[in-house]
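U., I forgot to send this yesterday:
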Amino acid sequence: MTIEFPAIRISQEPTVWASPPEWMSFSKLQQIEACPRRWSLMSSDYPAIWGKNGYPEPLIQSTLIGRVTHRLVEIIVKEFQRAGCTSFDNPDCIRVMRELGGFSHIIEKIFDDVLIQYAENPRAAGTLAVIKKALLERKSDIRENARILLSRIFEGKQTAQCVSLVSQGKAEPLRNGIYSEVQLVNEEIKWKGVADLIRLTPEECEIRDFKTGVYKEEHAEQLRIYNLLWLCDNRKNPSARPASKLTISYIDADVDVPPLLISEVGFYKDKLIKLKNEAKKK
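Result:
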């Protein structure tokens, strides 16, 4: 009798180990603090496995759903802002959604855009079709979650004027308006991050982060880091306008986080420098 065994997978060290990070971000700090060796292994090069940097990521359905939801909200926020929609029930919102093809069309396109990033991933081999089918089965949930998040962003939130987001990704000062996926950089302390949404009006400066999971204290810490980076980003915020509102937007509810006081800025900056230096030694 012949017995067939599945292929044996042999672990191997990276060909090129990752260097200590020159720039720090909240997600990178979390990974290093959780397990420095795991971060190093995940960030090193494996040319014998594939041609991209780092170890291939696994396909985790909950992570993909969160990524798709974030991207869906980002796309709609940008298009609403371009059309001058200042509230979720603005008649122009219906026109914009029709032009985009509706929620289902946008979601399916995002699925394709997200999954194509795994086309060369050996850990995703043979599973992309299965994962896409599973995601399509969750399409209505993603649509409803995005509706909830969008309604909170635009409900009663007036912007001073309609602004173009074409130059938002460039290093230019942000004017009054709603901006999604804003990269914040502090050259001095070598920290960076991407705020899910920044809303600027003459009266308020809000930084909002979307979460599809449950509340964790680390989410508040992440927002405080964005608060500092926004305050110190002399390109996006040359007037050093402080944030007046920090919001963690969960599907169930919004959670307010107290913004940093001006008296806390120096202490918090020193804290981030210390955390970065400690992480590099691990």
